[in-house]
Write a structure and sequence with these properties.
heterotrimer; A alpha/beta (247); B mainly alpha (329); C mainly alpha (288); B: 329 residues; mainly alpha; ABC transporter involved in vitamin B12 uptake, BtuC; 16 helices; C: 288 residues; two-stranded antiparallel sheet; globular
Chain lengths: 247, 329, 288
């Protein structure tokens, strides 16, 4: 449902994204790996609308969103999480998610009752938190949460917006190694449940091989290799360039 | 929510407040009424500061609009000088001014917002001050006793008016203001405002129209403050241009912070405390500004969450202690 | 008469320039909007007035320079004390707290002035009288006003030179342009900020000291200069020397011609201009 067609983005001499073609199908979880500066974040920025390309097209469900603003893409269903967590620090976990739902349903202007009275929306927010294994923390504020929980909450908010495509930029960075799998389990189980397509930028190969349907390897702005996780792990060029293993 | 212990406490307090005219002297009652009007102001102001995260140093302008609406009616439309007309008029005019000023101000944030609100309120001050033929200039306007529905208060002096019908009128409007404000802050709109306060960028990203809702908050806040100003004018008997001066706006900020802007009840407590603090200081020393200034400084440094905030923290600690003690053997 | 209006405009602008320069330096280097700036102006005024009354000689030079110096120095000292006690506490807090703390300081200082100098007016017109008048383009004009313009010009020149050429000044500008970078370069932000605050306060005190021979020192004398300086900073742009100059001239001339031609509209007009500029260009004419 996402098609990237001959996408190019150059910053002067730097070819951040150099003629990228890729497709993501519904319900797929695709990881992008590559060395630093390979162009992964630039690609995500192009897809989510924070950068406009020099040439090429981006199609989302056959709609051309190449030059659409981030706001429009969000409305269409392209959600994104950031490396630096962006949360509502003084609101409860429940409110963080529920307010996103209120916004989605256009209830902010029409809702005259106290928020708690809207049981269906509140239930839905709790359900989303459940999917992410966070419903026990719903009355806490972000200040009391661990790094991993903050990341999950960040993604849960993007989730509440009913994104059909989620772009996750290093979802486990900053999370303690012992928590990484727990965090990914929560995220992926919620994703699979709703059938949301996901594009993940990751460096941790355990995470990549554990959760991806497909892996795309980028190097110097181009796609170097593509395939199932185990195929990629065995690919000699990938091993040499990305992992620095020469055999 | 109706069964919530909070509402029971509020109802009890309200009932208690009904008896105040019998218990307080006229002088103390007037002081309390000043406090109530400022409590309404504080509630309105805090919608903008505590819930939306915008610090206005020019809210005196809306207070002045409310107060001068009353004064102007007294001067130019004495035949319509009746509470049931004056209050809606004050609300309407505060709405108009907050729409105009708000539209200009919400495009900016942080210090620019504060500076712009200050400048605009001083513009109003300058107009009120200079156009003395209309507004009475530095002398201001007199505020005689109004009528309410069919009741005329001719022949009564102000203290009796204030301790009789007017007290209950004010109390009811205060209670209604509290209920409405409570409704606003707990509604989805209120939640959206808090999201805007916490993270403007993220709020925009979840589809909240930040500028528009800031404007709505600004307008609602201006209306509450204008209502407070109108109600205040009857207690004071007199309105002057100083009400739009930035120092007065500073006092509004002060009382909100005194009570604590993180809690709903904070501004109410702050308003009442400030009223008593100021009058106590003015009554006991010629250096009352020193007292107020020093208190403000100490307050900001030691109790950043205000009095209500400090109490809340204390209560939370006691609760935890009790829970802890309950679990140890 | 236009000659007189123009000269008056320059005079107002001169005083405003000094005051707003001080406000601007503090705002630029420390990011703090000091609401008590007017109180420092008042302290300078009262100190200078008191000095002039005490000295009461006919020797012009000591008169003037002692009074100006005393006003400047006292304001600087008070600024120093303020910075050390209050402003330090503000670094970690948000804007609301800053404004409130300086607001509290304003209330406090107004009464401190009352405590020290009492509630009466101090008339210190001796320097004004001693200097006499001069004939400017066919009009009689007090020399003292021209003297004020000279002092301001010198002060402005000094600040310009200081900010642009001296090491200390360049460091201050570095901080105002990019605080984090400056820290990274190893600049002692704490000491430099104190210095900036003292400098700004001293300028306010100097302005107050300059004005007393023409106006008696009264309680609340600093309020209007504060608001006007505020307008100048806002109109000219936060942190800009050129902006302070242009803003001061704009406000000074509006004031001078406004009072002469249409007194009722003068004050509202100023705020209207400020409001319009803020709406169109919130950073001010030359602001960043």
């Amino acid at each position: 449902m996402l098609t990237v067609d001959h996408l190019k983005k150059h910053f002067g001499f730097v070819r951040a994204v150099d003629n990228i073609n890729l497709q993501i199908r519904e319900g797929e979880i695709v990881s992008i790996i590559g060395t630093n500066g390979a162009g992964k974040t630039t690609l995500v920025n192009l897809i989510s609308g924070y950068l406009k390309p020099d040439s090429g097209r981006i199609l989302f469900f056959d709609k051309d969103i190449t030059y659409a603003s981030p706001y429009v893409r969000i409305k269409l269903g392209v959600g994104r999480s950031f490396q630096l967590i962006q949360l509502f620090g003084n609101s409860t976990v429940l409110d963080n998610v529920r307010t996103a739902l209120f916004s989605k349903y256009g209830m902010i202007r029409k809702g005259l009752l106290p928020a708690d009275r809207y049981s269906s929306v509140t239930e839905e927010a709790i359900q989303i938190l459940n999917n992410f294994n966070m419903s026990d923390k719903k009355e806490l504020t972000p200040t009391g949460l661990s790094e991993g929980d903050l990341k999950i909450l960040d993604i849960a908010i993007a989730f509440a917006l009913k994104s059909k495509l989620l772009l996750l930029d290093e979802p486990t960075s900053g999370v303690a190694t012992s928590d990484k799998f727990k965090v990914m389990d929560s995220i992926v189980s919620a994703i699979k449940k709703e059938g949301v397509s996901t594009l993940i930028i990751e460096h941790d190969m355990d995470i990549v091989s554990g959760y991806s349907d497909r892996v795309i390897v980028m190097h110097e702005g181009r796609i170097m290799a593509e395939g199932k996780p185990d195929e990629i792990m065995e690919n000699r060029d990938v091993k040499a360039i990305v992992f620095g293993i020469v055999s | 929510m109706r069964r919530n212990p909070r509402w029971i406490a509020y109802t009890l307090i309200f009932i208690g407040l009904l008896f105040i005219p019998r218990l307080f002297s006229i002088h103390d009652l007037m002081l309390f009424e000043y406090g109530l009007t400022f409590a309404i102001v504080g509630l309105g102001f805090n919608l903008l500061l505590g819930y939306t995260g915008l610090l206005s140093f020019g809210h005196g302008a809306y207070f002045a609009v409310g107060a001068y609406t009353v004064g102007m009616f007294a001067k130019y439309l004495p035949q319509a000088y009746s509470l049931e007309l004056l209050i809606p008029a004050a609300l309407f005019l505060s709405l108009v001014l907050s729409v105009i000023f708000g539209f200009l101000c919400v495009r900016h944030t942080k210090i620019f917002f504060s500076i712009l609100t200050l400048s605009l309120s001083m513009l109003l001050y300058a107009l009120l001050f200079k156009l003395y033929h209309i507004t009475g200039g530095s002398d201001g306007l007199r505020v005689p006793l109004p009528t309410l529905l069919d009741m005329s208060f001719r022949g009564i002096r102000r203290p009796e008016f204030l301790s009789g019908t007017y007290y209950y009128f004010l109390l009811i409007l205060f209670a209604v203001s509290c209920v409405i404000m409570r409704g606003i802050v707990s509604s989805p709109f209120g939640k959206a405002l808090q999201a805007i306060r916490d993270n403007e960028v993220r709020a925009e990203l979840i589809g909240i129209r930040v500028r528009r809702y800031r404007l709505y908050a600004f307008i609602l806040s201006g209306m509450f403050v204008g209502l407070g100003g109108a109600l205040w004018s009857f207690v004071n008997g007199h309105v002057t241009a100083d009400l739009s001066h930035w120092v007065f706006s500073g006092e509004i900020v002060y009382m909100t912070l005194l009570g604590g802007f993180g809690i709903f009840e904070g501004p109410i407590i702050g308003a009442i405390l400030f009223t008593y603090l100021k009058l106590y200081a003015m009554g006991n020393t010629q250096y009352w500004m020193f007292v107020i200034g020093a208190t403000l400084i100490v307050l900001v440094l030691l109790l950043p969450n205000g009095v209500a905030g400090a109490i809340a923290v204390l209560l939370a600690k006691l609760k935890r202690k009790k829970a802890f003690e309950g679990t140890t053997c | 008469m236009w000659v007189i209006y123009t000269l008056n405009g320059l005079y107002f602008a001169a005083l405003l320039f000094l005051t707003s320069l001080g406000l601007n330096i503090i705002l630029g280097v420390m990011g703090i909007l000091n609401l008590a700036h007017g109180s420092l102006y008042a302290i300078g005024a009262f100190m200078a007035a008191w000095t002039i009354i005490q000295i009461a000689t006919k020797a012009l030079a000591p008169f003037i320079f002692l009074s100006l110096l005393s006003g400047l120095v006292l304001a600087g000292v008070v600024g120093f004390l303020m910075e050390k006690s209050l402003i330090r506490a503000m670094y970690k807090r948000t804007l609301e707290y800053q404004l409130l703390l300086t607001f509290g300081a304003l209330l406090l200082l107004e009464d401190v002035i009352k405590m020290i100098w009492g509630g009466q007016a101090y008339y210190a017109s001796a320097p004004f009288d001693l200097l006499g008048s001069i004939n400017v383009l066919g009009h009689v004009y007090p020399i003292y006003f021209l003297f004020v313009m000279c002092i301001t010009f010198l002060a402005g020149l000094f600040i310009w030179f200081f900010m642009g050429r001296t090491k200390l000044g360049i460091m201050l500008r570095a901080i105002s342009l990019d605080r984090e970078m400056a820290t990274g370069l190893g600049l002692d932000i704490g000491r430099l900020s104190t210095f900036a605050f003292v400098l700004g306060s001293g300028l306010a005190g100097l302005a107050g000291a300059l004005v007393v021979p023409t106006t008696p020192a009264l309680l609340g004398i600093g309020m209007e200069p504060l608001i006007l300086a505020f307008i100048v900073v806002v109109v000219g742009g936060l942190g800009s020397l050129k902006g302070a100059l242009v803003g001061a001239l704009l406000v000074g001339f509006t004031r001078s011609f406004g009072i002469a031609i249409f007194p009722e509209i003068e004050l509202p007009l100023l705020f209207l201009i400020a409001g319009v500029i803020l709406v169109v260009k919130p950073q001010g004419l030359f602001g960043r």
